[in-house]
Amino acid sequence: MKDKGLVFNIQRYSVHDGGGIRTIVFLKGCPLRCPWCSNPESRKAVQPASWIKNGKEETVGEWRLVNELVDEVMKDDIFYRTSGGGVTLSGGEVLMQADFAAMLLKELSDLGVHTAIETTGCFPVERIKTLMPYLNQVLFDLKIMDSEDSKRVIGADIAVVKANFEYLLTQDDVELIPRIPLIPGYTDSMDNILEIVTYLSSLGVTAVHLLPFHQYGSSKYDYLSWEYTMKDVEPLSKTEIETVQKAFEAHGIVANIDGLE
User: Fold this and answer.
1) Which of 15, 94, 167, 189 is the one with CA 20 to 30 A from 23?
2) Beta-ladder partners of 65
3) Mind listing the pLDDT tens digit for each residue in 98-135?
4) How far, in Å, CA of 167 to CA of 261, rounded?
């Protein structure tokens, strides 16, 4: 049913992922296999999963009706209004549940709530088009630009990703924010960074957000009894991140750094 979606987390009072004070609704399901994923419980099919946490088995994911979710997130409407915030749909990959996401976003948009999604743009562009009438902002991840490496490492067709990104650039009513996860050994090579810089420059993009790698989700792999190949990987240093930042800014692209403490 389109009016029912699988949600695995709701995060209130977030000051990231869209501006102002926001509520983040995390939708289950993602076709990609990024080794650094910080929400591995969201991966694979749109169906509940289970893990062992603190010695107890827990179900990950709950089916929620659109009207139930609207009632829940609107409890914080005063914070959205006073801070310029709103609701962001994250995941997983939002486009896995595009019809449900569209219904939820429509209800929120009708109530005057600022709406945003986080996406990797890994599905045909028709899916994201269903969301467009109800969106104010899209936070769009660009990861591995080489076609073969993208398919091999994370399972994404970069041609499809680019088609989504370029479509969104034509939508004047929607703010598009490119985001670059900086993952040691995967996305942080200067070859990959310069491919992203060249691509964005050719499209006239003037600003990006850089997302440095972190280990915040590493314990989840233990809960799932999955191997986490990134466990010994050190986050990039401030100097290394600034080197990437300068590569963008040398081409006239402002690179904001998120989450660097």
Assistant:
1) 167
2) 4
3) 999 999 999 999 999 999 999 999 999 999 999 999 99
4) 34
Residue position matching structure tokens 């296999």: 33
Of the CA atoms within 13 Å of residue 244, those in its CB half-sphere come to: 28
Q: Domain ranges in the chain?
A: 4-257
Spatial contact of 109 and 8, defined as CB atoms under 8 Å apart: no
Task: Count H helices and E strands in the chain, helices first.
Answer: 9, 11
The pLDDT of residue 261 is above 50: no
φ, ψ of residue 152 to 5 degrees: the values are -70, -45
Q: What's CA 223's distance to the chain center, in Å? A: 22
The class of domain 4-257 in CATH terms is alpha beta
| Dihedral sign for Cα atoms in the order 14, 15, 21, 27 | negative
Is residue 225's pLDDT more than 50? Answer: yes
Q: What is the DSSP letter of 35?
A: T
Q: Length of the chain in residues, anyone?
A: 261
Reduced to 3 DSSP states, what percent helix, strand and coil does the chain have, rounded to the nearest 5? 35, 25, 35
